Amino acid sequence: MGKRRLNYLVIIFNFLSFIFGAAVLGLGIWAAVQSGGLNNVVNDVMYAGIYILIACGAVVMLLAFFGCYASVAESQPAIVAYCVILLVSVGLEIASCIILFVFYNASRSGLSDSYMTKYGIDTSITTSWDEAQLKGKCCGKEFSSDWDKSFFYKANGTYPLSCCVRDAESNIVDLEKCNNGEHGFIYTEGCAWILKLYYYAIAGTTIPAIMFQLISVAIIVCLYQYIH
75-227 — its CATH code? Predict the structure, then answer.
């Protein structure tokens, strides 16, 4: 394969890396900011992984431009620097994904522990769950009936107000029917789907991003041999 074709391939794969890097950055920010309060009730290590991905996404976007420059300029030092930094970034991305998936079960367990024993007692936990349930239109971990075993429900005989279906003006449709757990007046789906969405979305963008980055490294190494 000629040097010119290698240059084109480097540019193409760096462009793809830029797109997926932007996706990783955007999804990381979305997961960290629009978490619906769940960041206060799940494992802190999981969110450390998200913040690492945010940094990696930004680095990948910058490296995409640097990779194109190194290829077009045919600069050996630039190519070496590009490969080293990109491989470090890939390593961090892989580590972040491992962290996220290893601590997934711990995060789900954190959801149960927080509302079963601390809702209505711990102000930060209570606020976090209310925010998560209102934003996510969900109730409990897997189902609204999960609350039946909680300290809050046993003490009060009611579901949290944030579980109740609301109208367009954010008013509870029917509080009595909500407390009775009647379908249509209480959110029946649990909030665990929010965590699942984060994992699937991040994995769906990070894995292709890593793949394109590794291909870019392989191609630019071939280019390096041409100009060595």
Answer: 1.10.1450.10
Higher pLDDT among residues 156 and 71, named by residue:
156
What ranges do the domains of the chain cover? 1-73, 75-227
Give yes or no for a contact between 63 and 162, defined as CB atoms under 8 angstroms apart: no
- Per-residue pLDDT averaged across 84-101, rounded? 81
> pTM of the predicted model, to two decimals?
0.65
**How many Cβ atoms sit within 10 Å of the Cβ of residue 94?**
14
Q: What is the mean pLDDT of the chain?
A: 80
23, amino acid identity: A
